[in-house]
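User: Reviewer 2 asked us to show a designed sequence for the structure in our supplementary figure. I'm pasting the structure tokens here. Could you produce the per-position amino acids so we can include them in the response letter?
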């Protein structure tokens, strides 16, 4: 049983702080990609789906900030549920929601156009979130 538990367990507060810092880095990366990707000559596919991938990574990390005691699998399931609901909400058109989607915040948070390909990007983004969360934990513990 030696080595089964870390010598210095990580507190939920520390876990949330690390995840919040990672989420902030992902947000900056996603905004940079969306704002400067085309001017850097990146293909539209990379800008569009890279942004979606980073959005899902951010959702995973923010769910982890709010619920630090959940396992990564539980966080991934929660992030996937949020991503699916947000994507399918794009099929709902009511005036106030459509007006919000036309704002910068609405476009970044909810998107505008339904695409099943976004669900693929979200799955990859959540997997990236699981991976960087695991790496961050290994660095803290090890």
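Assistant: Here is a per-position design you can include in the supplement:
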């Amino acid at each position: 049983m030696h080595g089964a538990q870390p010598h210095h367990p990580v507190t939920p507060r520390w876990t949330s702080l690390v995840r919040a810092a990672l989420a902030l880095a992902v947000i900056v990366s996603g905004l940079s990609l969306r704002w400067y990707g085309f001017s850097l000559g990146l293909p539209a596919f990379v800008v569009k789906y890279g942004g979606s991938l980073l959005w899902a990574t951010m959702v995973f990390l923010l769910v982890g900030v709010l619920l630090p005691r959940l396992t990564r699998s539980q966080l991934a399931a929660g992030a996937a549920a949020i991503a699916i609901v947000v994507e399918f909400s794009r099929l709902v058109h009511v005036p106030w929601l459509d007006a919000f989607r036309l704002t910068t915040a609405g476009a970044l948070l909810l998107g505008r156009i339904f695409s099943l390909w976004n669900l693929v990007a979200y799955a990859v983004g959540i997997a990236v979130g699981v991976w960087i969360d695991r790496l961050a934990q290994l660095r803290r513990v090890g």
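For the response letter, you might also mention the following. The chain has six helices and no strands. Residues 37 and 67 are 32 Å apart (CA to CA).
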